[in-house]
Amino acid sequence: MTDIPLSPGMAVLDVDLSAITDNVRTLRARVDRPLMAVVKADGYGHGLVEAARAALAGGADSLGVTTLGEARALREAGVDAPLLSWLHAPGADFGWAIGAGVALGLSSLEALEAVAAAGAGAAVHLKIDTGLGRAGCTADDWPALVERAAGLAADGRLSVAGIWSHFAFADAPGHPTVRRQVVNLRAAADVARAAGLDGFALHIANSAATLTDPDAWCDVVRPGVAVYGLDPMGGDPAAYGLRPAMRASARVLMAKDVPAGTGVSYGLTYTTNAPTRLAVVPVGYADGIPRAASNKAPVAIGGRRYRIAGRVCMDQFVVDVGDAPVAAGDEVVLWGDAAYGEPTAQEWADAADTIHYEIVARVGGRFVRRHHDDLRGRA
Ligand SMILES: *Cc1c(COP(=O)(O)O)cnc(C)c1O
Predict the structure, then answer these.
(1) Integer CA distances (angstroms), 155 to 116, 117, 147, 149, 151, in order
(2) Cα of 61 to ligand 1 centre, how many Å?
(3) Inter-CA distances, 21 with 143, 186, 360, Å
(4) Fewer CB near the terminus (10 Å): N or C of the chain?
(5) Domain end among 174, 196, 227
(6) Is residue 232 part of a domain?
(7) Is the dihedral of CA 31, 37, 41, 44 positive or negative?
(8) Looking at residue 181, which CATH number applies to its domain?
(9) What pTM was computed for the model?
(10) Atom of ligand 1 nearest to the CA of 223
(11) Same domain, yes or no, for 291 and 323?
(12) Which residues are designated catalytic?
């Protein structure tokens, strides 16, 4: 039994940038029209700037982010691609956005007025709520919004570059609301044209629609999770020619032999049923490992599969490895690419009763993220 001090590298997120590049190339070829790669939330946990550069290398025509902080981080890193930012706190610095050429997704007259007041030359994308019931202008308020936008455009104050919306069923492309939302989006575009706007791009397709629904592709598609190689429907991304870009792993902190009947971790929710070996893995819910995955989520050690034994704690969890000669320092793969026999983020999502988006976007804490040009050669 050897203890290894926790050090950088004890828990690692290896990001394969070639996967992001290849996934974008695959998606772009599939739709044969402009693609906006969504890199919000630190590139879904893969690294904002690195993911953006990899997506652009794969042919992304533009990038989508939520906050102006994300947009600023991209511009400061020298990423000069077209950017759309769509989540603005009151008081957001629209003047900076206009100067930096960051297009603004807007859902209300108040926001439009704030942008117009911040300076001339903004490119705005007006968002209609076609059925998600979240951000977006209601159909009732839409005519006034596009009237005002048309007036500002006629005066040369700003341009309306897009009209857009977002789906309620990201993971169920056959859902009846999907068709209705596309119809509602096209109707909103007609209202905008009647108000005198033209030349705008229409867009609504997230990853699920990009993969499955040509009727929703419109003028631009906006995939996020598929860029990172995950299937939004929860299936095998390889079916679409995509591969996961993130591999999460940690090193066994210590391993020890215990007798049958040993209770494991807080609450002793797991009990060994034979003499066995326990491996302690130094990541926990403070690092984004879901506690809900206790006793369920899979890991791979030395090419063999195990499940977490007992509760996921703040900083660690335990794996019952049976008679395998697992030792301190051995690599524990949490999730990666099924093509290498690694557990997947989808399996973790199933274990934690969530979606893989949350698994990859939330992981962090003491994990060290490393970017690689290409990880395909791994064993
Ligand atoms: C996150 C997001 C997307 C991408 O969604 P995916 O399901 O990850 O493809 C597209 N558009 C908007 C407005 C978003 O917030």
Answers:
(1) 11, 13, 12, 10, 6
(2) 16
(3) 40, 31, 18
(4) C
(5) 227
(6) no
(7) positive
(8) 3.20.20.10
(9) 0.96
(10) 9
(11) yes
(12) 40, 266
Ligand 1 centre distance from Cα of residue 224 (Å): 5
Q: Is residue 173 part of a domain?
A: yes
Residue 65 covered by a domain: yes
pLDDT block averages, 10 residues each, the chain of length 379: 55 97 98 98 98 98 98 98 96 97 98 98 98 96 98 98 94 88 98 98 97 96 98 97 98 98 98 98 98 98 97 98 97 97 98 98 96 87
In sequence order, the β-bridge partners of residue 257 are 277
Ligand 1 closest atom vs CA 170:
7
Q: Are residues 51 and 178 in the same domain?
A: yes
125 and 189, same domain (yes or no): yes
Ligand 1 pocket test target in 206, 225, 231 with most atoms within 8 Å of CB: 206
Same domain, 202 and 265: no
Same domain, yes or no: 209 and 258: no
**Whether 47 and 196 share a structural domain:** yes
* Same domain for 252 and 184: no
How many structural domains compose the chain?
A: 2
List, chain by chain if needed, residues with CB within 6 Å of any ligand 1 atom.
Answer: 38, 40, 86, 166, 170, 206-207, 222-226, 232
d(Cα 131, Cα 168) in Å, to the nearest integer? 7
CA of 280 to the centre of ligand 1 (A): 36
Identify the burial level of 237 via C-beta atoms within 10 angstroms of its C-beta, where 0-12 means exposed, 13-18 middle and 19 or more buried: buried
Shared-domain flag, residues 62 and 98: yes
